[in-house]
Amino acid sequence: MSTMADGIYSLEQVAKMLDVSERTVTRQIKAGKLKGFKVGKSWRFRAEAVDEFIKGQEASAKEDAAAEDTDDDAA
Asked: For residue 61, is pLDDT > 60?
């Protein structure tokens, strides 16, 4: 049986999933790049929000790589 909480992660879990520090995750929240919510003083994240963040990072990396290729061609 699936419950509403099945797709909810803590700050620590998200940091481990992304292989970054908890402080880095907090910075991404403050920058508006990762959506979360607080339960008391603790941050929580829906699986969908983490997936959206990852997709956004992948798109950004592709754009950066394309820009670097363009810069290399112009040089």
From this structure: yes
